[in-house]
Amino acid sequence: MEAVMRGLKADPVPGRSHQIFHVQLDPRPARGYRGGDAYHQGVEPPPGLTWQDAQALSDTSPDVKAAALAQGRVPVRSDMSSVKRYATARYLNAAAFALFDMPIWAGRPWTKQEEARRDRVVVISRRLAEEMYSGNVALGKLIQIAGKNFEIVGILNEWNIYPRFYDLASSGFNVEDIFVPLPLAIESSMPVTGSIDCFGPQQNDLRFSPCTWLQYWVELPDNASVSRYKDVLHALYQSRRELGLYDRPENWQLRTLQQWIEQNIKIPLVFKIQTIASYFFLLACLINCSGLLFVMFHHRKKEVGIKRALGATRSVIVAEFISESSALGIFGATLGVLFGVVGVFVMRCINPPYANYFNLNLGSLCIAAILAIAMSILSSLWPAINASKVDPASAMRG
């Protein structure tokens, strides 16, 4: 359970998560707004942005590395097959690859220039490449997406980030196989799935609809850039209110990646209870083991008495018993690791949405083994010390 809890609290972008921020604005109409301080203290803006707001932020701060993302489900087919299948797609801009450290296995991401020219280029997952093209031979090949041909310029390596923090609303646990330039995907009328929150009549083209559907992330490397970007958000909000585009009082959020995860993903209570219960179970095992060792060592008091009579010191007796307990601990640690691996497999089966959190890496296995051996030594200390106090003469008489 400790490994699971570490997985749930893990930093998805180590070393940079404090520099990656999620942006929220509130373009909703005045209806439903109650006013008062409670609004500013607790009302959460929508998780996504409208197309117009995302474009306005991009135009206002062209020097800030920003990523806009949406999710879709599209039919795909290779140029060598007539068989069509559906795949989860991610629509994003070129900056997202660097912003999220997305690992390219072969080829490259598309460039800003290709994105601006609306070149039909695409990045696919390594899994899809091996399934449809037998690996990196997919580079340069054509793939049909939603009835249109795209050139494969890059293959994304396995990207094990759980949860999918960059779009929790629509794909907290899904894995994407297709990555398409966002403007091209929308202009090509590729379907958008996931969280679409409309506060007015929705049109066929989401770019012109009063709907929040884009996740927007920015990289702000230091406190000064964070402060400047907050000024940008304040100025944008005020200008859009003056233009009549925003009805409500100023309400925006700029959260770090970890703050965004903590805001939206709560560790299930059952996991917390199971973790606490596992520690109590460990304590009970420690006490029980100590009692068993006490009885075992007590039954060997004649042996201890003979060794003491032959010149063995108390420290030698203690060291001998502890070494025996350590051997038992090593045996128990081996069994424990095996049971742990089986337990993780079972947990993955009975909790599919959280399956990717249930992982035992080498570090976790080593910690478990060391903990088992340490507990065996700790549980043997009192029985070993007590056994070493045996009087040689009385022990041999008894």
From TrEMBL:
<feature type="domain" description="MacB-like periplasmic core">
    <location>
        <begin position="17"/>
        <end position="232"/>
    </location>
</feature>
<dbReference type="InterPro" id="IPR050250">
    <property type="entry name" value="Macrolide_Exporter_MacB"/>
</dbReference>
<dbReference type="Pfam" id="PF12704">
    <property type="entry name" value="MacB_PCD"/>
</dbReference>
<dbReference type="InterPro" id="IPR025857">
    <property type="entry name" value="MacB_PCD"/>
</dbReference>
<feature type="transmembrane region" description="Helical">
    <location>
        <begin position="276"/>
        <end position="297"/>
    </location>
</feature>
<dbReference type="GO" id="GO:0005886">
    <property type="term" value="C:plasma membrane"/>
</dbReference>
<feature type="domain" description="ABC3 transporter permease C-terminal">
    <location>
        <begin position="276"/>
        <end position="392"/>
    </location>
</feature>
<dbReference type="GO" id="GO:0022857">
    <property type="term" value="F:transmembrane transporter activity"/>
</dbReference>
<feature type="transmembrane region" description="Helical">
    <location>
        <begin position="328"/>
        <end position="350"/>
    </location>
</feature>
<dbReference type="Pfam" id="PF02687">
    <property type="entry name" value="FtsX"/>
</dbReference>
<feature type="transmembrane region" description="Helical">
    <location>
        <begin position="362"/>
        <end position="385"/>
    </location>
</feature>
<keyword id="KW-1003">Cell membrane</keyword>
<keyword id="KW-0472">Membrane</keyword>
<dbReference type="InterPro" id="IPR003838">
    <property type="entry name" value="ABC3_permease_C"/>
</dbReference>
<keyword id="KW-1133">Transmembrane helix</keyword>
<protein>
    <submittedName>
        <fullName>ABC transporter permease</fullName>
    </submittedName>
</protein>
<keyword id="KW-0812">Transmembrane</keyword>
